[in-house]
């Protein structure tokens, strides 16, 4: 399973979380998505580092953008796109995917439900992630609160493009949640508060990947 830990804009120490992830022994692939400004420092720990977003632009007059080229140069291996807290127009998702592909970044496009998963899977990302917004940050895992949304998202993505991996997110914080996601057909999980808001991120990560 791919375990992508999104630090959002939580007031945690991104390097400490990355070092903790580096110390955890697991069969899963763990990656950390810090704030853009912290990508270089997190990547230096050796942990796989992701961006939370890249802009649908290339080099040029785009003040305030998050340039995919700069993100990749800083050490990112991939990027989230269209997170529930950073929604994009369909055309911008497509252009951000082009930017990521151009710069060698792997991609996970988020969506709220199976219909949206089918739509974004058609754009050809490496993976999609289904996240019911109402469960984000609640500590109630999507695999428990709404298992059908995960099953249906897996089926929807497979129908469009079986090469696209499917992750699920919202409320995931324990190894049981990761195992439940795998049983529902997910190839990975996307989570945040369970680690970023934990008093002891290393213990939280160990519990997650046990
Ligand atoms: O990017 C992560 C997701 O929004 C899930 O957040 P959460 O683990 O705090 O529910």
Automatic annotation (TrEMBL):
Q: Which UniProt keywords apply?
A: Cytoplasm, Gluconeogenesis, Glycolysis, Isomerase
Q: What is its EC number?
A: 5.3.1.1
- One matching Pfam family, short form? TIM
Active-site positions on this chain: 83, 131
- SUPFAM superfamilies referenced in this protein's UniProt entry, alphabetically: Triosephosphate isomerase (TIM)
| Pathway linked to the protein | Carbohydrate degradation; glycolysis; D-glyceraldehyde 3-phosphate from glycerone phosphate: step 1/1; Carbohydrate biosynthesis; gluconeogenesis
Q: Which InterPro entries match?
A: Aldolase_TIM, TIM_sf, Triosephosphate_isomerase, Triosephosphate_isomerase_arc, Triosephosphate_isomerase_AS
Task: Recall the GO molecular function terms of this protein's record.
Answer: triose-phosphate isomerase activity
- Localization (cell): Cytoplasm
Annotated PROSITE patterns: TIM_1 (PS00171), TIM_2 (PS51440)
Q: Which residues bind substrate?
A: 6-8, 136, 171, 192-193
Q: Name one GO biological process term.
A: gluconeogenesis
Organism superkingdom: Archaea
Provide the reaction this enzyme catalyses.
Answer: D-glyceraldehyde 3-phosphate = dihydroxyacetone phosphate
What is one cellular component GO term in this UniProt entry?
cytoplasm
HAMAP family reported for this sequence: TIM_A
* Function per UniProt: Involved in the gluconeogenesis. Catalyzes stereospecifically the conversion of dihydroxyacetone phosphate (DHAP) to D-glyceraldehyde-3-phosphate (G3P).
Subunit note? Homotetramer; dimer of dimers.
* Protein family according to the UniProt entry: Belongs to the triosephosphate isomerase family.
Protein name as catalogued: Triosephosphate isomerase
